[in-house]
Amino acid sequence: MKTRIKNILQAKPVGQHVSVAGWVRTKRDTGSFSFIEVNDGSCLANLQIIGDEKLENYESEIKQLSTGTSVMVEGVLQESPAKGQDVELHATRFRVIGKADPETYPLQKKRHSFEFLRELSHLRPRTNALGAVARVRSRLSYAVHKFFQEREFVQVHTPIITTSDCEGAGEMFQVTTGLEKTKAEHFFGRSAGLTVSGQLQAEVYALALGDVYTFGPTFRAENSNTSRHLSEFWMLEPEMAFCDLQGNMEIAEEMLKYLLSDAMTNCPEDMLLFDKFIEKGLLKKLQGIVDKEFAHITYTEAVERLKKAKKKFEYPIDWGRDLQSEHERYLSEDVFQCPITVTDYPASIKPFYMRVNDDNKTVAAMDILVPGIGEIVGGSQREERYDVLESRMIEAGIDLADYSWYMDLRRYGSVPHSGFGLGFERLVQFVTGMANIREAIAFPRTPGSAPC
Ligand code: ATP
Ligand code: MN
Predict the structure, then answer these.
(1) In terms of residue numbers, what domain contains 19?
(2) Atom of ligand 1 nearest to the CA of 322
(3) For the chain, how many structural domains are there in total?
(4) Which residue's CA is the closest to the ligand 1 atom numbered 26?
(5) What residue's CA is closest to ligand 1, atom 5?
(6) What is the CATH number of the domain that holds 280?
(7) How many CB atoms lie within 10 A of CB 320?
(8) Is the pLDDT of residue 169 over 60?
(9) Which atom of ligand 1 is nearest to the CA of 196?
(10) Cβ neighbours of residue 317 closer than 8 Å, sequence gap 6 or more
(11) From CA 450, how far away is CA 221, in angstroms rounded?
(12) In angstroms, rounded to a whole number, what is the distance separating the alpha carbons of residues 140 and 193?
């Protein structure tokens, strides 16, 4: 049975016989023995292995080891005289499993750019940085479930193939067999697409189970080639019955702080790597966010601030226009220097399901904007009044017949309810300090690119 290197480096069972399995990072020969650094992906650190000429394959295999080769090693753990490590493994059996030709293996010792590594999405998780992102992402995903399960939220698996487009037409990938000619021949009897959000279905379950969340893949066919957009991404969407906008904002803030702190506590080495090499001062920034209340501001106030700003923006800002990323970043980076929750956006720029405020001009929406990224969370209180919802849908040109199930929720036992969507890759990006969202997901899909 192999032991994970992370466990060995934590428990340091000196004197014990262990076996490990991983990939060679480096090898150095000195006279009758070699130092071999092996990484097995369980943690950032490598385990140093000492192989000497007493091993039967020392000359034939070990001396020829090259970066990327997979190995299985048995040996005895010893205290290490070397600086920077406590233990090392003295090999008693050293098996080479799969060779990696040094002439062609693309991940050589030097640092590679993230752009270059994107072309190698099948090998990039073997690098320190992308391996660390994968571990932090996994931990964050676990922490999402932990946070909501600890609070008695029920997870709902909402569908990936959907017939409702809740964000407005144009962004959906169509699902077809490719053979249909008429609507009646559609596989589902009507046109269907990949989900852009699980919210509407999450609402169904919130109005039966109270507090729910859905967490899964989401697809947007928008042609935005930015450092914050993917065509396939993961979205976390909690939905809470008997909850107004205030309650919604509170849970979102509590959740974000919980997730940041969970990653710092449980992935300390990986986080230190990001702090050192990806974004200097990252840990201090994240801890500062955990310790401080988010700023709160209405959309109307935000627009006033932006109009007074000395900074020149590419896009004009006026009441009734949507905030662009440059505006969002200016507010969180320059004005408040912390995450801010912006509420009460104009009804005209937000979807039909957001609850209309008493002023009849704005809706009970809330976006959370963070430094470096802009919008990370978008949410709202949902319109629970049948008549108001109906007139908003008619205004938006939505076919009511398609949404009778959604209207039924307002017809039978309607309650005030709220929820939000957190873009999971934007969270991963924020926590790791990665400049581009393509490093926050294992296999990024963007317009023109879906390598493997
Ligand atoms: P943006 O204005 O940045 O495109 P949005 O208003 O379209 O965001 P929502 O529809 O509110 O976003 O989706 C909820 C959350 O999902 C966003 O706050 C963001 O974190 C994330 N998100 C939205 N679109 C994408 C995308 N294409 N790639 C990755 N994450 C996304
Ligand atoms: Mn968008």
Answers:
(1) 5-98
(2) 2
(3) 2
(4) 229
(5) 378
(6) 3.30.930.10
(7) 13
(8) no
(9) 10
(10) 303, 306, 307, 323, 324, 327
(11) 13
(12) 28
How far is it, in rounded angstroms, from Cα 305 to Cα 337?
Answer: 14
Position 355 confidence tier, pLDDT thresholds 50, 70, 90: very high
- Say what the pLDDT of residue 366 is: 98
pLDDT band at residue 127 under the 50/70/90 scheme: very high
418 within 8 A of 202, measured Cβ to Cβ: no
Q: In this structure, is residue 190 part of a structural domain?
A: yes
Q: What's the confidence (pLDDT) of residue 167? A: 54
Question: Which has more pLDDT, 451 or 250?
Answer: 250
Q: Are residues 145 and 71 in the same domain?
A: no
How many Å lie between the centroid of ligand 2 and the Cα of residue 230? 10
Q: How many CA atoms lie within 13 A of 43 on its CB side?
A: 16
CA of 375 to the centre of ligand 2 (A): 10
Asked if 193 and 66 sit in the same domain, the reply is no
Q: Residues 72, 183: one domain?
A: no
